[in-house]
Specification:
By secondary structure, the chain is mainly alpha-helical. The protein has 9 helices and 4 strands, in the order βαβαββααααααα. Strand 3 and strand 4 form a beta hairpin.
Length: 333
């Protein structure tokens, strides 16, 4: 895997999302909400894709949006469907996600990323705009949400959610990568400083409230969770984000366990995929490709005590039921 860093500054820069069409209830971008039409392609290793997995589960959209899971180990053509019979996605009929990208734009030369939403009749990629995908699941697909689905992006809290998300994205979600992929000390130091300053601020915010915004789970919690759940397994050591482990930050560790133990969160997390992807794909960082045995994953099941802060995880709604049989993960410990 080639890591795009600035040769002068040593800074890692993530490429912008090239495909930003939206699937909406009114179909104004040419892509109307239509159950059974679209396929969500993810890697369970990827934190950006994991957001879409959590939101899809919480809202009960499994019946409306089908799921393709890529192999956590990429090759020179990026994400591939080698977990499926014949090494092809059984719905799209393709071996590589890149085939859907090139159907959308034969001249495309950028990276191949997940999550991606593909139009199954045409085989064309619709969007890889990961921040917008989950918001549209929450706001444009409401006619197909399960009964009791939570409001993950409540209108009266959107400004606050957006503000929290901006800080979390810059200083947590992106900063771990900027630290891990930095090739010069100053670039690493800046990302490291921003990361732990933001984690300290988030810890203070969450000390006396159960969730980031309001008293229910929102999009903000989902975006922070997918980085926190990977922290000790990969970011602390592999990406040199090593001031503290998550397990050494009491408030954030309890908060992360609270979410992990909430239906729709931990049941989408595959630590095997996460660890094998980071340690075996990033050969510039880990040339031996050895996958560490730790950390001890059973700690995620220990009591967290966050119920004492009150809050209603699903607001006036209810927890999602169990995952579809084809999406049940092996035991994690």
């Amino acid at each position: 895997m080639t890591i795009p860093t600035d040769p002068e500054t040593g800074e890692f820069h993530r490429a912008p999302n090239h495909f930003a069409a939206r699937i909406t209830a009114d179909g104004r971008d040419g892509w109307p909400v239509e159950p059974g039409r679209y396929r969500l392609v993810v890697s369970r290793a990827c934190p950006w894709a994991s957001r879409a997995l959590v939101v899809r589960r919480l809202l009960g959209l499994e019946h409306a949006i089908s799921l393709a899971v890529a192999d956590p180990i990429q090759d020179e053509k990026s994400w591939r469907f080698t977990l499926d019979p014949g090494d092809r996605d059984p719905v799209l009929g393709i071996k590589y996600l890149s085939e859907a990208y090139y159907k959308a734009d034969p001249d495309y030369t950028g990276g191949i990323s997940v999550p991606a939403v593909v139009d199954t009749p045409s085989g064309r990629l619709v969007t890889n705009d990961f921040p917008r995908i989950t918001l549209d699941f929450a706001t444009e697909w409401t006619a197909h949400h399960r009964e009791g689905a939570p409001d993950l992006y409540p209108e009266h809290l959107r400004d606050e959610i957006d503000e929290v998300n901006r800080g979390v994205h810059t200083d947590v979600n992106a900063a771990v990568y900027e630290a891990g992929f930095a090739t010069k000390q100053a670039a690493y130091d800046d990302a490291y400083r921003r990361l732990f300053a933001r984690l300290d601020a988030l810890s203070t915010r969450l000390e006396n409230q159960r969730y980031l915004v309001g008293d229910t789970i929102t999009e903000a919690d989902i975006r922070l969770f997918t980085t926190l759940v990977r922290f000790d397994a990969v970011y602390h050591g592999h990406f040199k984000c090593n001031r503290n482990k998550l397990t050494e930050m009491p408030v954030l560790w309890a908060y992360a366990r609270d979410l992990f133990q909430t239906p729709g969160f931990g049941d989408t997390v595959d630590f095997d995929h996460i660890k094998r992807h980071y340690y075996q794909v990033h050969e510039q960082i880990n040339p031996t490709r050895i996958v560490p045995r730790g950390p001890e994953l059973s700690l995620w099941a220990t009591p967290h005590g966050r119920e004492a802060l009150g809050g209603r995880p699903f607001g006036d709604g209810t927890p999602p039921g169990p995952p579809p049989p084809t999406e049940v993960l092996p035991a994690q410990w």
